[in-house]
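Per your request, structure below.
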């Protein structure tokens, strides 16, 4: 994990700790795994980086749907820090506070209000009208999929690497 400290682009990212944590989250490395890895090998690194690959033009609808779900599962795992299959209000508050921590004009209480409002909106999208005695316990992955419906995660969550075409040199 300490090797990630030397990546300049991560240094100022407000959710740096969550990103690094995601690289070692076994749920992102292998199906039906849980916990954290102490270290990752090159194959594990490539597995994580595959979540950030751009879409390919020749993908059919089924491939695009699977690709989208893989990316969203990765994001879901970043938010679900206690690995219980739900993003609770407290987990969501932590992420929002981290994201907004670089803004000196925004107090912690304001960040908390933003998170609370977003969680209420998530409940209305996923559960609908709730009764006064109902409590929304957290966002499941199925809820997460509903919330991201219509948002173009496929093109927003990617890293574009240098794309060099092979040039044949004939002398």
């Amino acid at each position: 994990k300490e090797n990630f400290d030397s990546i300049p682009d991560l240094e100022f990212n407000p959710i740096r700790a969550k990103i690094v944590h995601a690289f070692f989250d076994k749920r992102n490395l292998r199906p039906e795994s849980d916990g954290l890895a102490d270290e990752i090998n090159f194959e594990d690194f490539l597995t994580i980086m595959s979540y950030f690959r751009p879409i390919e033009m020749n993908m059919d609808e089924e491939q695009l749907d699977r690709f989208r779900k893989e990316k969203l599962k990765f994001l879901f795992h970043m938010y679900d820090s206690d690995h219980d299959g739900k993003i609770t209000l407290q987990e969501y508050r932590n992420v929002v506070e981290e994201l907004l921590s670089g803004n000196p004009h925004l107090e912690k209480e304001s960040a908390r209000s933003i998170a609370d409002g977003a969680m209420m909106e998530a409940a209305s999208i996923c559960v609908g009208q709730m009764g006064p005695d109902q409590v929304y316990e957290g966002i499941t992955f199925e809820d997460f999929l509903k919330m991201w419906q219509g948002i173009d995660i496929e093109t927003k969550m990617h890293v574009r690497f240098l794309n060099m075409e092979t040039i044949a040199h004939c002398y």
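The chain has two domains: 1-51, 57-170.

Regards,
D.
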